[in-house]
Amino acid sequence: MALIKTEALSYQYPGGKILNFPALQIGINESWLLTGNSGSGKTTLLHLISGILMPSSGTLQIANTLLNNLRPAEIDVYRAKNIGMVFQKSYFIDALSMHKNLLYFAELSGKKADIEFVNKLLNDLGIANLARKKPTTLSSGELQRFSIARALINKPGIILADEPTSSLDDDNCKRFIELIIGICKSYGVTLVVATHDARLKKEFVNTIQLN
Ligand SMILES: Nc1ncnc2c1ncn2[C@@H]1O[C@H](COP(=O)(O)OP(=O)(O)OP(=O)(O)O)[C@@H](O)[C@H]1O
Fold this sequence. Notes:
By secondary structure, the chain is of the alpha/beta class.
């Protein structure tokens, strides 16, 4: 069964052209690359899947839930439970250690942080030795590895990453993408990476191409 399924999905920003998306069937624990030229709608599609935007037409189904039918409050609950996000730039609080940052973000969702899970994540990502450091003392490659931990902290079924490697050099890019694909595989998480970064193409079997 598909975890993410769309049919005839489209979105139109006020006054903008209609963005039409190909039908998608993305399975549990699969890794997908979302590519296309600048302006083709990669970020918009990620925002539709995460419920930040509602489709103008078409259907979007995640597991057994038709997102079109949800009310805004239900969408917020859906997003908090199901979606982890990784962005081009990491977002952490400078005054807190990385460990405290992760506990803080875990608790933002209203649940008590699972410290054992946080520690397991840090070990699995090979960043436990950096957990006492503050964000300003870390490199962009190290911060992006913590962004993976942040995205996984509430145990989502789906991770959406928007241009996660565009500020990384070749070594960090390779390390990051292998790490996020590997950890999503081992945690049973479905991964969609939107990018125009040609370095990522060879890492994915499944590709969505937007025009
Ligand atoms: N908030 C907005 N209001 C109006 N138009 C928007 C808005 N955000 C994006 N667009 C337009 O919608 C289209 C798709 O944008 P989107 O950011 O999804 O593309 P993208 O493929 O992610 O591009 P890039 O690779 O440059 O990030 C573009 O034409 C863009 O100008």
